[in-house]
Amino acid sequence: MDNQRIENIEAELRLIRERNSTVEKDKAWEGSFTRRILIAIFTYISIGVYMWAININMPWLNAIIPTVGFMISTLTLPFFKKIWINKKSKEIYGKK
After folding, report:
1. What does pTM read for this prediction?
2. What does the pLDDT read at residue 19?
């Protein structure tokens, strides 16, 4: 009985470690430079194609502005997330 219990605990621990590994990789991807560059490229292409399709003058040049704006907004999100988490923690746990 004790051996079975230990094996169950070890199996659960393995599952937790595997999950943590996956979460760490996902977290690393979310903050990676590669992801940010890909988002900028896809945003630029999407906006450029849309502007070209609706006959905007110089669509590829004009697509730069919304792409830069989008990137600035996504780059500032971690800063505001930290502020929001701190505020919520104070509300929930009554810390000052």
Report:
1. 0.66
2. 94
